Amino acid sequence: MLTFDDLPIGSLSAYQFGAGTLSGSGVDEDTSVVDRYARPAGDPTRFLSVSYPSSTGAVDLVFAKPQSYFGLYWGSMDSYNQITFLQNHNQIATYSGTDIASLTGLIANGDQQSASSNRYIEFDLRAVFYDEVILSTTDYGFEVDNIAFGDPSSPISEPGTLLVLGSSLYGLALVRRRR
After folding, report:
1. What is the reported pTM?
2. Does domain 10-178 bear CATH number 2.60.120?
3. CB-based contacts of 169, cutoff 8 Å, min separation 6
């Protein structure tokens, strides 16, 4: 899992992690700048701001081997935020904040404190593999943290598994409560 807790604050030209390389944008601490970027709700740690320091920006994650799972804590989801999955430089899927909101019932309005626009989002692409992910925005405000990923030959990372398990148990509790 990629957290940005140990990285220096400021622009991030390139960062090597165990499974690949991340390049572009910057890391910020627990600060927010009105109409620029905001710490994801409930996350007191350092985070990645896709549009740091200008209004538009992109972060490119390139993996050493194909992946099938991707998750991230998406702060203040906006309609103009976009996640693109590629395989061998060919686009295989793109999701905007609006797409994710319509699929999940969330709201892509950039509310910096609302649970409806600050959420951990998971992409389980078991039938399709990717080796690159581009996070991009055409305006200020695309913040992420706790990026998880998994390749087809290994189990999904434990935080993702725990999130799926936790969501399932919560759903089961709601069903029992209604009965």
Report:
1. 0.80
2. yes
3. none
